[in-house]
Write a structure and sequence with these properties.
The protein is built from 15 helices and 23 strands. It has helices at 49-67, 109-117, 121-128, 137-147, 151-156, 165-173, 183-186, 201-207, 245-252, 310-319, 329-339, 375-401, 418-428, 440-452, 478-496, and strands at 5-11, 15-21, 27-34, 46-47, 74-81, 87-90, 100-101, 160-163, 180-182, 192-193, 198-199, 216-218, 221-226, 238-244, 261-265, 269-276, 287-294, 297-306, 345-347, 365-367, 408-411, 432-435, 468-471. Strand 2 (15-21) and strand 3 (27-34) form a beta hairpin. The protein starts with a strand and ends in a 7-residue tail after the last helix. Bound molecules: adenosine-5'-diphosphate (ADP) and SN-glycerol-3-phosphate.
Length: 503
């Protein structure tokens, strides 16, 4: 058979990428565009949905050109996306009614606080698996309906559509023919009942969100629709896989067994455990969510969402200008460890604390500064904060599930950092496995899109070609790690005693 390819479109917080995979699961080519972040007010982060769409089109064309293949050799397309980020658009014009409200954005805090004050926390968790927070789409939709002139009228006329980024891109790719999402993305809206697998009418009424703006929810694998002719070299290519990026990464690691767990270190850090066909209930601040829907069945997951991970490294570079690039941080941290035994702690709660604390009123803090503290120590504290946040979540997962974690698999941009991988292995006293190819998110949705058109027959026959680097914990560091973690816990406690009032 002539070689065909799967095109994965990975629309992340900071960039839009298209990656082509071959039948062996090898990456054949990549194309990428940075996505401008819009900061209109303190705490707000928005994206221009039209720019996202334009970039998506461009990278899809570029990747085919970079790979030097005929476009008709693309067997199917998969979409994976930054989750929760909310777009509302006009069905008739295809124009967004406002900039997309990004998952990290805080403008709807006031709505989230109001829902908590109404005593809805447990009800919302029981239905959606989510702890009320402005992170999820629901309060973002409420904010847009309230603040964009004419939004409610448009909804009343049946001309307003809501989507997370997957839905927006699917709608654009099909030229408005398909308004749909998959279970994994729906489960992040705080509107979807993860037990009944339906939009929850009671919550929609409580939040005053009209049901007619919502997309249809489908399995993560299967044909959603076809590219409109003007979109992709005049071809009608099936879009056959959709998953939120964190769930796609779980799938990309082939973490199909109950208890399999991964952490993706991108802008944020998302630790996700496969919990099988039954939803696991958390009493430690984790989210119960849908991993993926496949062959008419959903697989559930537990998730710890950490808002700031690689973003803290970007802050060192662009905000503090302490580093020139992210790559140099590993060696800087090594030097700090050699020269300065005294630890500095950074609590990178720049947009509040996610799992397991869910405290949107805390902001970042640094502890342990002395006259001898230098930039290498701050860099090290920043990298170590990514590991401490991971341990916070893993401890919660172990308590919730009573499962042992034999290995943690990691991926995402910051997973390339050797210092982080070593420190994390020591801190959690668990081997850390890192694939050499860190595009696990894209690979995951490529698998889904390939399965959706029979390019691969079943999950059992998916290729697994990645080389991995395994970092084993060093027992000699065990005692030091206990002390270090206690210091982190004190730092978090202290940061939380200095709350910002919500405006
Ligand atoms: N060597 C590195 N060490 C630490 N952080 C890194 C390194 N390389 C990239 N990063 C961080 O990884 C993030 C980008 O990862 P990526 O998976 O592309 O994120 P996203 O999908 O959220 O846009 C950036 O925040 C960047 O600071
Ligand atoms: O774009 P990423 O990779 O930072 O992922 C963002 C998450 O999906 C937000 O929930």
């Amino acid at each position: 058979m002539e070689q065909q390819y799967i095109l994965a479109l990975d629309q992340g917080t900071t960039s839009t990428r298209a990656i082509l995979f071959d039948h062996d699961g090898h990456k054949v080519a990549t194309a990428q565009k940075e996505l401008p972040q819009i900061f209109r007010q303190s705490g707000w982060i928005e994206h221009d949905a039209n720019v996202i769409w334009e970039h998506a089109r461009q990278v899809m064309a570029e990747v085919v050109i970079n790979a030097n293949i005929k476009p008709y050799k693309v067997a199917s397309i998969g979409i994976t996306n930054q989750r929760e980020t909310t777009v509302l658009w006009n069905r008739r014009t295809g124009e967004p009614i406002a900039d997309a409200v990004v998952w990290q954005s805080k403008q709807s805090d006031i709505f989230a606080n109001a829902l908590k004050e109404q005593g809805l926390t447990q009800k919302v968790y029981d239905k959606t698996g989510l702890w009320i927070d402005s992170y999820f789409s629901a309060t973002k939709i409420m904010w847009l309906l309230e603040n964009v002139p004419g939004a409610r009228e448009l909804a009343a006329e049946g001309d307003l559509l809501f989507g997370t980024i997957d839905t927006w891109l699917l709608w654009k790719l099909t030229n408005g023919a398909v308004h749909a999402t998959d279970y994994s993305n729906a489960s992040r809206t705080m509107l979807f009942n993860i037990h009944d697998l339906q939009w929850d009418e009671e919550l929609l009424a409580l939040f005053d969100i009209p049901a007619n703006i919502l997309p249809e929810v489908r399995d993560s694998s299967g044909i959603f629709g076809y590219t409109a002719e003007f979109v992709f070299f005049g071809l009608q290519v099936p879009i056959a896989g959709i998953a939120g990026d964190q769930q796609a990464a779980l799938f990309g690691h082939q973490a199909f067994k109950t208890g399999d767990v991964k952490n993706t270190f991108g802008t944020g850090s998302f630790i996700v455990m496969n919990t099988g066909e039954q939803p696991a209930i958390s009493t430690h601040g984790l989210l119960t969510t849908i991993g993926y829907g496949l062959d008419g069945k959903v697989t559930y997951a537990l998730e710890g969402s950490v808002f700031i991970a690689g973003a803290a490294i970007q802050w060192l570079r662009d905000g503090l200008q302490l580093i020139i690039n992210a790559q140099e941080t590993a060696e800087m941290a090594d030097r700090s460890r050699e020269n300065h035994p005294k630890r500095v702690y950074l609590v990178p709660a720049f947009t509040g604390l996610g799992a397991p604390y869910w405290d949107q009123n805390t902001r970042g803090a640094m502890f342990g500064l002395t006259r001898a503290t230098g930039r290498e120590d701050i860099v090290r504290a920043t990298l170590e904060s990514l590991a401490y946040q991971t341990k916070d979540v893993l401890d919660a997962m172990i308590s919730d599930t009573q499962l042992d974690i034999s290995t943690l698999v990691i991926d995402g941009g910051a997973a390339a950092n050797d210092y982080l991988q070593r420190f994390l292995a020591d801190l959690i006293a668990t081997p850390i496995s890192r694939p050499d190819q860190l595009e696990t998110t894209a690979l995951g949705v490529a698998y889904l899109a390939g399965l959706g058109v029979g390019y691969w027959d079943s999950v059992a026959t998916l290729p697994n070609s990645d080389e991995v680097t395994v970092e084993l914990p060093d027992e000699q560091h065990a005692e030091d790690m206990q002390v270090a973690y206690q210091g982190w816990q004190k730092a978090v406690e202290a940061a939380r005693m200095f709350p910002l009032d919500v405006e």
